[in-house]
Design goal:
Blueprint lengths: L1 H23 L21 E9 L7 E3 L5 E6 L6 E2 L4 E5 L2 H26 L3 H34 L6 H30 L3 H26 L2 E3 L4 E6 L6 E3 L2 E4 L4 E3 L2 E4 L4 E9 L13 E6 L5 E9 L4 E2 L14 E10 L11 E7 L1
Antiparallel strand pairs: 1-12, 1-17, 2-11, 3-5, 3-8, 4-7, 5-6, 7-11, 8-9, 9-10, 12-16, 13-14, 13-17, 14-16, 15-16
Helix pairs in contact: 2-5, 3-4
């Protein structure tokens, strides 16, 4: 019985080995590739890695940074929205700067009111008071003079009837009244002349200084609202309401660096592609009039002919595409910008990496 079991197990093992050997020798036909690898259409073409950008006459996409720091109060646009030039994009909380501007405006208005007051002098009411003071001084002088005349007449008739001390007091009273009248008249002349020209000039300068301080403060207040520098499309918004932004941009918690607060691209139906040609291949570039190029969108069989736009004539370290500024850079690249029309059958966005072949 034991031998029969061993024989059966051996037979099953043989069958299993034959089955495994058969199926292991079966070969399956290779699956066709999802897309063909990029290849140069030129016999002497130069390969370059490129990045898609919005159309700009110079530079790249428009990166917007605020000129002031603060907390984002409101965002007026959304990503992908088309905006017109000078349209409001984002507002930073302006409460402190708004109060400062209002205070300086009030100070300038007060200085202007004081200037108008100086120019409007003399007031009729002030002159009326001065005239009354002159009249009172004249009356006092007449009283003192009449008293002196009586004292002198009595003394002339009978020197013993008036003491010398009383006569001297009457003389002094008349002199004091005369002096008071002179002071009252000069006070009237001073009031009638109006404000001193130097006081007016000084007040004018203070008003101008306060007005300029308000204008500067108001101009700074306007910077708390970011506006679109041109017609375009909002490519990205890198902040939210309540977040802190500064002239260095907005903090990115993923990269732990700073990004532009907003990025705007051109709404044109064309796009640019910026290529970086290795410095050792620069000498192989054809003349600019003969440059032609073909772009391949990664992950597709889509090939798009490019139109040469310009060369940025400055060779820089090869860090633009990776933005790895801490890496050791031994290679430098020359930027070349091409233009192409947006394809209608393929999704393509600024910031996308593409393969470019340059020939002649």
């Amino acid at each position: 019985m034991k031998n029969k079991i061993l024989f059966a197990l051996s037979f099953v093992g043989i069958l299993g080995g034959c089955w495994a050997a058969y199926f292991s020798t079966i070969t399956h036909a290779a699956q066709p590739p999802v897309f063909n690898p990029a290849s140069s259409p030129y016999s002497t073409g130069i390969y370059a890695q490129g990045i898609v950008e919005s159309v700009q006459s110079s530079g790249q996409n428009v990166n917007i940074y605020p000129e002031v720091a603060g907390t984002v109060k409101e965002i007026f646009v959304r990503e992908g929205q088309t905006v017109a030039k000078n349209a409001p994009l984002l507002q930073i909380d302006p409460s402190i700067q708004s109060a400062t501007a209002e205070q300086q405006k009030s100070q300038a208005e007060a200085a202007f009111a004081m200037l108008q007051e100086l120019k409007a002098e003399p007031r009729k009411e002030t002159l009326d008071v001065n005239i009354a003071q002159v009249q009172a001084a004249q009356a006092s002088l007449k009283t003192a003079k009449d008293g002196l005349d009586k004292e002198q007449a009595a003394y002339a008739i009978n020197p013993g009837s008036i003491s010398k001390d009383a006569l001297d007091s009457a003389i002094n009273a008349e002199a004091v009244a005369q002096a008071n009248l002179a002071v009252a008249r000069r006070q009237y002349d001073l009031a009638k002349a109006g404000a001193w020209i130097y006081d007016i000039h000084n007040q004018e300068k203070q008003y101008i200084a306060l007005q300029k301080a308000f204008a500067a403060s108001d101009a700074l207040l306007a910077k708390y609202t970011l506006h679109a520098p041109q017609d375009g499309v909002v490519l990205s918004i890198n902040t939210v309401v309540g977040a802190y932004v500064s002239p260095q941009g907005a903090y990115n918690s993923y990269t732990q660096g700073s990004d532009p607060v907003l990025m705007i691209g051109n709404s044109d139906r064309h796009l640019n592609v910026r290529c970086y040609v290795d410095e050792i291949l620069v000498t192989r570039l054809p003349p600019q009039a003969k440059i032609k190029a073909l772009m391949t969108i990664r992950g597709t069989d889509v090939h798009i002919p490019l139109t040469f736009d310009r060369i940025q004539p400055f060779v820089s370290p090869k860090i633009e595409l990776s933005d790895q500024r801490q890496e050791r850079v031994d290679v430098r690249v020359l930027p070349i910008i091409f233009r192409f029309e947006k394809p209608t059958n393929v999704n393509l966005y600024p910031g996308e990496l593409v393969d470019v072949y340059i020939g002649q």
